[in-house]
């Protein structure tokens, strides 16, 4: 892998461990067109490279990923045909995570929201700062959680809880998320780096082929489920991209952000 191929994801290697850092800290690593496209291929590239056996995914700065960039959402409203590209990339993100044989560890260093939550939850093992939160508030901007959230949440916490969280968009503290099985571990912030590094090194020093193919075997069912649901979910998400609810809610959110920026400047 070549850093020159990525503008919004930073690549770092430590021994046989490859760390991928979402690198838009000024926006809390919100996903724009550039980052979305890079996410659609980075796990395939990481799976193919010979220099690593374990992947860690995290975010730069104060957040893991704040979800979709609101200006990018406006672009999709203004040019709805562009959502076809988004749909293709969204499928590639989910299936490349599932197809990657190397174990992927999510290091959730701050809020994981929307697509950020989806990506984190499709990782194989997750560690989070115990003082942050996870949420999938697609409904809060008038969209269907079609990017994979509707696939993975019920598998981790059951349908009743998943429906509650996805139909409300409510935040879940990472402590509670660990209690109900949405993530693996919620740890103090000062321990997060060390705990992730220790676990990554444990996997890297293990029987890597056995570890990879155990993951591959377990992911067969998840891939079957994703193949049966993703087209439907993304089709409904595309429909809501053109809805009045979505247009009005995105406008209101952008106005709120603009007003907050003006108050900071003055």
**In order across it, which strands form the biggest sheet?**
1-2-3-4-6-9
For the secondary structure, the number of strands is: 9
Proportion of residues in β-strands = 5-15%
Shape: globular
Q: Which architecture would the CATH scheme give at its second level?
A: Alpha-Beta Complex
Which residue ranges are poorly predicted, with pLDDT under 50 across at least 5 consecutive positions?
Answer: none
Gist of the model:
The protein is α/β, with parallel strands linked by helices and 266 residues long. Helix content is 56%, strand content 14%. The N and C termini lie far apart (44 Å).
Protein model, in words:
This protein is an alpha/beta fold and 266 residues long. It has a single domain, classed as 2-enoyl-CoA Hydratase, Chain A, domain 1 (Alpha-Beta Complex). It is 56% helix and 14% strand. It has ten helices and nine strands. It has a six-stranded mixed sheet, sandwiched between helices. A three-stranded mixed sheet has the order 5-7-8. Strand 2, helix 1 and strand 3 form a beta-alpha-beta unit. Helix 2 packs across helix 10. The protein is globular.
């Amino acid at each position: 892998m070549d850093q020159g191929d990525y503008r919004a994801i930073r690549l770092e290697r430590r021994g046989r461990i490859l760390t991928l850092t979402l690198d838009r800290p000024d926006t809390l690593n919100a996903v724009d067109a550039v980052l979305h496209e890079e996410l659609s291929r980075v796990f395939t590239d990481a799976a193919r490279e010979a220099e690593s056996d374990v992947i860690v995914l995290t975010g730069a700065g104060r957040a893991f990923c704040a979800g979709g960039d609101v200006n990018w959402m406006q672009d999709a409203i203004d040019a709805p045909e562009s959502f076809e590209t988004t749909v293709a990339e969204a499928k590639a993100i989910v299936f490349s995570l599932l197809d990657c044989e190397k174990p992927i560890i999510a290091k959730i260093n701050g809020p994981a929201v929307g697509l950020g939550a989806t990506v984190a939850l499709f990782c194989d093992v997750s560690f989070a700062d115990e003082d942050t939160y996870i949420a999938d508030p697609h409904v809060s901007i008038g969209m269907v959680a079609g990017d994979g959230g509707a696939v993975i949440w019920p598998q981790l916490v059951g349908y009743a809880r998943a429906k509650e969280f996805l139909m409300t968009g409510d935040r879940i503290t990472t402590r509670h998320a660990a209690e109900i099985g949405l993530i693996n571990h919620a740890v103090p912030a000062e321990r997060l780096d060390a705990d992730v590094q220790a676990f990554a090194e444990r996997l890297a020093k293990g029987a890597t082929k056995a570890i990879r193919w155990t993951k591959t075997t377990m992911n067969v069912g998840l891939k079957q489920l994703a193949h049966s649901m993703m087209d439907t979910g993304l089709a409904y998400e595309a429909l809501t991209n053109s809805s009045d609810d979505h247009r009005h809610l995105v406008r209101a959110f952008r106005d709120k952000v603009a007003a907050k920026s003006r108050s900071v400047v003055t």
